[in-house]
């Protein structure tokens, strides 16, 4: 009897194991063999991304909402590419330039997020040109918002301008203003495309004691630590420009032009109607709060703007206007981040698949809905989550499509640092506008000549 009982127990255990196998074994088998089978079997793609990304789900500190981690992208990409393994390496913005350089030099990734595309990587042959892949797949570049692809064209080792990156993370600049302060002062709101004179005049009118509240208000604010973009954009609004040329031996600079000088003098006049701490980036602490005391904010970016506005209940109070454009409707800093393919990648076809994947509605909607990243594809305009924020997203898309392209080739070089430094000197009274711009012009010419020797 004991023998029969043991036999029954054994049979029961066998039956249980079979049942467990049926329930879980098949899926485990697929999981363990999926990396060995499929078109992309055995390939591991390493992608570098910059920002406050997390692989696992987390909670947004501002809105308190749950944020899906990058595993969402990993799972979808691996599902669409059987056999492939995706490894995402994240890094914060702090120190990303040096960290990226270390990774590129050490051949540590196949794909990089590269906001500083003109950091020399394409010129030095570290990046793979994408046009052959675009042509092979007949990949439609018209899916991207106008000017976004052109903005990332840059010079390769052969001296020719090519596509080395495709847009992923949208960014742009615009002007924000507080409708309540305008109303308190009886001043008309900014026009959709305000002029330099309009901004100066209205900033002057709204500096002083608010006639409704009796509290001090300031007509304008801008970053005194990074004022260089305002000067360049002011020149563009007068049909001027920073200059021309992408190759160092072809570059011509216009930093000492009449348009630049007028723009710098305008900024000096404008600073009279800003908080005193503007040169040290102080005085805007109340911005985007119900106690705000600044009427106009220049050179603003999207970032977490909508989240902050919604969290403070300021949807009906904040307005948005465009930066200065020339007569062709072009102007403003081109910003954002593309994905680029490393020349050293051993999985270039899979890297190209990832870059294409980044242009999908799935990828772009994930970045927008989870991390407030501005979409770079036209189809995003039809998403409900975008339409729900049309008050801010419609003008943001307009701004995305009109920046100066290709992007300023000196953006990561000495001309930018010199322009920034000299404009700061002007704002603090250490140098005259004319002398400052002449120094920037000379330094820029010397920089371009030096780059030709490197």
Automatic annotation (TrEMBL):
Lineage top rank: taxon: Bacteria
Keywords: Signal, Transport
InterPro entries xrefs: Bact_solute-bd_prot1, SBP
Listed transmembrane segments: none
Gene3D superfamilies given in the database record: Periplasmic binding protein-like II
GO CC list: cell envelope
Protein location: Cell envelope
Entries under PROSITE patterns matching the protein: PROKAR_LIPOPROTEIN
Signal peptide interval: 1-31
Predominant localisation class: other
Keyword Transport attributed: yes
Assigned protein family: Belongs to the bacterial solute-binding protein 1 family.
Protein name (database record): Sugar ABC transporter substrate-binding protein
Species per Swiss-Prot/TrEMBL record: Pullulanibacillus pueri
């Amino acid at each position: 009897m004991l023998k029969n009982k043991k036999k029954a127990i054994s049979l029961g255990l066998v039956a249980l194991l079979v049942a467990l196998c049926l329930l879980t074994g098949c899926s485990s088998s697929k999981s363990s063999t999926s990396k060995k089978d499929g078109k992309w079997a055995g390939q591991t793609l390493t992608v570098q991304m910059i920002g406050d990304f997390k692989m696992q789900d987390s909670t947004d500190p501002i809105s308190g909402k749950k944020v899906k981690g990058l595993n969402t992208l990993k799972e979808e990409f691996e599902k669409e590419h059987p056999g492939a393994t995706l490894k995402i390496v994240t890094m914060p913005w702090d120190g990303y330039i040096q960290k990226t350089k270390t990774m590129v030099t050490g051949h540590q990734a196949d794909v990089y997020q590269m906001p500083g595309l003109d950091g020399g990587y394409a010129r030095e042959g570290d990046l793979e040109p994408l046009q052959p892949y675009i042509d092979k797949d007949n990949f439609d570049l018209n899916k991207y918002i106008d000017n976004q692809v052109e903005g990332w064209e840059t010079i390769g080792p052969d001296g020719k301008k090519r596509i080395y990156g495709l847009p992923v993370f949208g960014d742009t600049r615009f002007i924000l203003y507080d409708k309540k302060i305008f109303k308190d002062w009886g001043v008309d709101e900014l026009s959709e495309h305000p002029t330099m004179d309009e901004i100066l005049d209205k900033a002057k009118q709204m500096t002083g004691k608010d006639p409704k509240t009796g509290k001090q208000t300031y007509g304008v604010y801008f970053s005194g630590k990074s004022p260089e973009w305002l000067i360049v954009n002011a020149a563009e609004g007068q049909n001027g420009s920073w200059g021309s040329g992408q190759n160092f031996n072809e570059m011509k600079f216009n930093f000492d032009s009449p348009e630049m000088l007028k723009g710098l003098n305008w900024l000096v006049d404008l600073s009279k109607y800003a908080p005193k701490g503007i040169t040290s980036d102080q005085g805007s602490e109340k911005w985007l709060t119900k106690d705000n005391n600044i009427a106009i904010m220049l050179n603003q970016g999207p970032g977490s703007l909508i989240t902050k506005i919604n969290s403070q209940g300021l949807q009906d109070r904040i307005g948005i206007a465009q930066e200065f454009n020339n007569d062709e409707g072009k102007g403003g800093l081109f910003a954002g981040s593309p994905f680029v393919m490393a020349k050293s990648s051993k999985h270039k076809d899979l890297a190209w698949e990832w870059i294409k994947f980044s242009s999908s509605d799935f990828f772009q909607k994930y970045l927008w809905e989870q991390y407030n990243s501005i979409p770079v594809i036209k189809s995003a305009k039809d998403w409900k989550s975008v339409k729900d924020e049309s008050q801010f997203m419609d003008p943001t898309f307009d701004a995305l499509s009109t920046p100066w392209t290709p992007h300023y080739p000196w953006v990561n070089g000495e001309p930018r640092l010199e322009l920034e430094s000299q404009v700061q000197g002007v704002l603090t009274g250490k140098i005259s506008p004319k002398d400052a711009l002449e120094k920037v012009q000379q330094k820029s010419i010397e920089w371009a000549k030096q780059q030709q020797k490197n």
